[in-house]
Amino acid sequence: MKQPGRGTVIALGLLAVAGTAHAGWSGKGELGGSFATGNSQNESLNAALLVTNVYDKWKHELAFAGNYGNDGDTTTAQRWEIRGQSNYDFTPKAYWFGAARYEDDRFSAYDYQGSLATGLGYKFFDTDATKFWVQGGPGYRFAKQQDTGNTEDGVIFRGDIRFEQKLTSNTKIVDRFLVETGSDNTYLQNDLGLEVMMSGALGLRVGYQVRHNTDVPPGIEKTDTLTTIGLLYETK
């Protein structure tokens, strides 16, 4: 039986971040189809939501992503992730961050993985055309193996790299790289996307996600990929 306690703590913490935010909301939502390879090979439906709040020197982000597939008889894909982060700028370029992440994936080496982390970040570029941020710091990870039910937990280092580049007035490329490394496992995730705004707040997004766990049981793929295409709705 899954132990939901830590995941519930993560979710409540993320909701608390949203609850402490003030005016200055913006949001981005995506709905479309996807094609997965690795431990799950299928065509499925994906959805994503990102809500951002900026108030004075604070910035809060709360995000959700889900992927579900069914061939009419059985479930072929079932994964969801919720993550959040709060930043405090103590100089125009440097900031402190606190972050949390929880994912539940029926078709991976881990039934669930979650983490809490804090640290420092630096904005090398933060203009309307180009954004390039790097951050990192210590954290704590907990997970449950899919096949054995064994649990793992321990101290990790978490690092993030975020990049955005406008190609035209309505087109930009975005990339986010995440690493969580500890004694039990190193988790890597990269999300690359091309976003084209077509009319007002409506646009199109094509994405390619790679997830990799270094320590998995025999017979389990270390790497999963997800290719997505969908409608994008963005408010500012």
- Fold-level CATH name: Porin
Distance between the termini: 42 Å
Average pLDDT works out at 87
Biggest β-sheet strands, sense, barrel = 12 strands, antiparallel, barrel
Find the structural class using helix and strand composition: mainly beta
Helix-strand blueprint:
Blueprint: H1 5-19, E1 25-37, E2 42-55, E3 58-70, E4 75-89, E5 94-105, E6 110-126, E7 130-145, E8 151-168, E9 171-182, E10 186-199, E11 202-213, E12 223-235
Antiparallel strand pairs: 1-2, 1-12, 2-3, 3-4, 4-5, 5-6, 6-7, 7-8, 8-9, 9-10, 10-11, 11-12
What does this structure look like?
By secondary structure, this protein is mainly β. Helices cover 6% and strands 72% of the residues. The chain has one helix and twelve strands. It has one helix at residues 5-19, and strands at 25-37, 42-55, 58-70, 75-89, 94-105, 110-126, 130-145, 151-168, 171-182, 186-199, 202-213, 223-235. It has a twelve-stranded antiparallel barrel. A hairpin with a 3-residue loop joins strand 9 (171-182) and strand 10. Residues 9-21 have low confidence and may be disordered.
Structure summary:
The protein is mainly beta and 236 residues long. Helices cover 6% and strands 72% of the residues.
Key words describing this protein structure:
12-stranded antiparallel barrel; 1 helix; mainly beta; 236 residues; globular; Porin
